[in-house]
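**Backbone shape codes:**
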Amino acid sequence: IQLRQTNAGNKYLKNISVHILINNAAIARGKLFSELSFEEYKKTIDVNFLSYVQMTHLFLNQKVIDDKNHILNVISIAGMQGMTSSRNSDYGASKQALTSFNDSLR
């Protein structure tokens, strides 16, 4: 499903039965913050965080979460402990946002 197509997932989820959603997406650039353009930073947030939010939203609009329906968000240790490398500020920020989002769904 293309991330730019906000409603693209609806047509895929409309006619199928999905019991588990596994979100697993990430990009890492390995650049210093000062080397990243705003567009690169935004793309990292889009892929590493907002794609999870979008797919979870689509899934929850189609399903009631119960014992048979589950969401698994593959995050990263960077989302739990933060990034200690100055070359991954975009990655660390996106994964920490995802950790917070994930915790809010419990």
Q: What stands out?
A: The beta strands are 20-23, 70-73.
